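Dear support,

I submitted the protein below through the web form. The confirmation email said the job was done, but the results page showed an empty box. After a refresh the structure appeared. I'm attaching both so you can tell me whether what I see now is the final result or a partial one.
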Amino acid sequence: MVYGSRLPYTIMRFVKMRRVYIKEEACMGCRLCEVYCQLQHSKSRDLIKAFKRETPHPLPRLRVEAKKPVFLTVRCQHCDEAPCIYACLTGALSRHHESNAVTVDEERCIGCWTCLLVCPFGAIREDTCRQKIAKCDLCPGEDVPVCVSSCPNEALVYTETQGSCHFTLDN
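What the results page shows now:
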């Protein structure tokens, strides 16, 4: 047995996190979640100005896939072991210390798109006008993401789940 070794060890803790889920049977594919997400991430937050006058046009952080008769929203799942965080070359993607959501530091993002390649859900979008990524941020500052609050059929649900978070420490 070696005393005083400096081997790294991993601490796993379970954290509560809120996530957006879809009720497939309730989604009618109206795409209002996309519209309101786009509006939420616009500069003006005015419906007419955001879609007619703003340049570059704001991108929605989710998209609706139509595989009739089923419609699904594709958005960041804020994975417990998020491959996009590990793939990011500049460290622009990280986990928020309070909400446990995967967040983007737009100042650090260089638009290399490696996160797009590794995302298992295809949820990260290219914002080619700004050469940055666009992904769901769970609408910080809001109690409920706007995609959930604007869904007329309540097909999107914002609920608390228990996820795991891993930390590697050097002793």
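Response: this is the final, complete result; the empty box was a page-load delay. Strands lie at 8-22, 63-67, 70-74, 93-95, 102-104, 125-127, 132-134, 156-170.
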